[in-house]
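so my prof wants the structure for this chain in the tokens format not the other one, which i didnt know existed until like an hour ago. anyway here's the sequence
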Amino acid sequence: MENIKVAVLGSCATRDNFNSRFNPDYKEFYDCILTQNQASIISLMSLPLNYTKDDIGELNDYDRWNVETDLSKSFLDDLVVLQPAYLIIDFFADIHFGVISVAADQYITNNRWKLWKTPYYKELKDQGTIKRLT
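here's what i got, hopefully its the right format
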């Protein structure tokens, strides 16, 4: 029998159901084929933002991935290609972080743990263009 393919749009609380450290036998039944971590639904559904690698700065690989996928909105395209049987969603990022309105129809998750460490965020802050929505 083939494992059930799942995708997770949420936070560690949801993703850790598919983490061997917390659920050692999950791979007997499930393949977690796609994740998007700590991204607001509002951000994800908005238009992608243009950015460069320099805009992200010196983040570790995991934090870089988190910020880049929030800016690029690539999760939705990947979801269409990978076709999981289930999409598991939690709203941690919407509740805990909220979003920043960058331009018309462009939002990013106001992730103070990751985004705020980037040159991209620092430039927005210096320009005084940050409009937070919670």
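also thought this was worth mentioning. The CA atoms of residues 56 and 133 lie 22 Å apart.
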